[in-house]
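Students often ask what a holo structure prediction actually looks like on paper. The answer is less mysterious than it sounds. You provide the chain, you provide the ligand, and the output is a string of discrete structure tokens encoding the 3D arrangement of the protein together with zinc ion.
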Amino acid sequence: MSDDFKMHMYGFVVTWLPVVWVFAVGACVGSLVNVLVYRLPKGLPVIVPSSRCPKCDTKLTFRENIPILGWLMLRGKCRFCKMPISPEYPIVETIVAVLFAATYLLWYVAIPNQTWLGVEWGAVKPEWAKNGVMETWPAFAVLLILLGSLVAMTIVDLKTYTIPLVLTWVPVGVALILHPVNTLLVDEFGLGYSAGTLGNWIIAIPEPGGWWWVGASGGAVIGLVIANVLVSTGAIGRSFADYEEWEAKAIAEEKAKRAAEAGESGESAEAEDPQADTPEMWVMYPHARREMVRELAFLAPAAALGWGGGILADRLGGAADVPLLLLVLTGVAMGYLIGGAVVWGVRIFGSFVFGKEAMGLGDVHVLAAIGACMGWPDAVLTFFAAVLVGLVMAVVGMVTKAKMARMMAFGPCLAIGAVVVLFGKPWIEAGLGALMHRGGPFNLP
Ligand SMILES: [Zn+2]
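The corresponding structure tokens follow.
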């Protein structure tokens, strides 16, 4: 073997081994996503003893438990009773694995100024990722956890129309820990970040003198904690607390009405379940506006403490620079608060205007989590991307006349929007720049 060939092989392995490894990690996370999607809505414990066939209880062997390959080896059937195993499992594992590997490739492998299939993939790389995986792995891990959670909540939302909130809390918790860890890593080893310059920190943070933002986000977070305590003690009512009672009553009334009608016309009283005819009962709930007043009361402490905290911190901080660690924590908090506020604001406004519940509280949590992981500008972009995704899906639904499960399922739109923003940021920035007749593209952090 020539030395040249050896060097070539070495370079090949060094480049592609991590990609294969990230793909494998993604497949394992996809496997976990399958478990969560199956167990969370049923309230089953998440810690799994071991995977079993739901029909004959046969345990899967270690080899059969391997993501993607296990299903292929079994050819989609239980080894013992031959019951078919849904292809959803390997498909979800593959989706997560591809998302993980694609992020790694774009962030750390793609070379700037080189085009492949007509696209300059290196341009997708965010400023911070240019520092390499050794210096930015915590931020990379935050994104991967977010992607895995988004896949899981999309599937659960499509199946059950609800979003288990724990799936939104996990990425927020990870962002709260790993973004500061990345700061320590960079700050300790001096890896060439200049803090405070918009555009090159990992998530959007305030200017070095931005004490107002530090105080405001800290105050708002404390306000939210207080409001949650007040709700749990019963001092503030939970919004839509009487919804289920109302729904049960409405269905009973509808049933009675149908039974009476059927009796008059002499038909059999065996009317079909009225709920089957009106799957969108929530549209008829008459108290949406009243419940929004309740939600505004819930948000009042956060608004008041946020405003007061901002003024107080601005006074106390004066001309001193905010410590970098505090700036990064503020960046995570701002992403969480602004992301959540966008959806909640639209929800309250829409509900007042239309008199029916607009957008779910679950969606508030989803965009808050996206904001905490990716920063507030990305959260705002994600919202608009999600609205476009929703419109496209509605048009596709109308054209193909496909049965849309529920038009209001905005969670999956938010998840797709976040992926669009993550991989399409340079084009979005260029597009915004052109829209607003600016000389060049926007440089959003
Ligand atoms: Zn079986």
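Residues 194-199, 268-279 have pLDDT under 50 and may be disordered.
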